[in-house]
Amino acid sequence: MRKKQNFYTSEFKAEAIKVIEENKGNVSETARQLGISMQTLSNWYNKAKSGTLVGTQQYSPDLVALLEENKKLKQQLKNAEMEKAFLKKAAAYFAKESQ
């Protein structure tokens, strides 16, 4: 049986982060107070600290855009490296066959 997935607004998340700060960083106590999973709240808190949680002071749309671009570029680099390795093996194979 599946659990029902809850969706929280960015305002709720931002308020939850404020409550954590009021509780001196005690995530587990705050999770009990708000009635949500400690893991969920911990994820939000980590995102807020890194500046990627919408609605918090540290949130920077520019930072999020840069992180997304970085992720995309890393994937492109990985694909290019795989293609290069494949072409290198193919060239070696054909060089060997032509002799």
Regions with pLDDT < 50 over 5+ consecutive residues?
none
Count of runs of 4 or more consecutive helical residues: 4
Secondary structure: number of strands = 0
Note the main sheet.
Answer: none
Mean pLDDT across residues: 84
Order of helices and strands: HHHH
Rg calculated over all Cα atoms? 23 Å
Shape, per Cα inertia axes: elongated
Short overview:
This protein is mainly α. The chain is 72% helix and 0% strand. The model has no long low-confidence stretch (mean pLDDT 84).
How would you describe the overall organization of this protein?
- The protein has 99 residues and is an all-alpha fold.
- Helix 1 crosses helix 3 and helix 2 packs across helix 3.
What are the salient characteristics of this protein?
elongated, 99 residues, mainly alpha, 4 helices
List the helices and strands and how they pair.
Blueprint: H1 10-22, H2 27-34, H3 38-50, H4 61-97
Helix pairs in contact: 1-3, 2-3
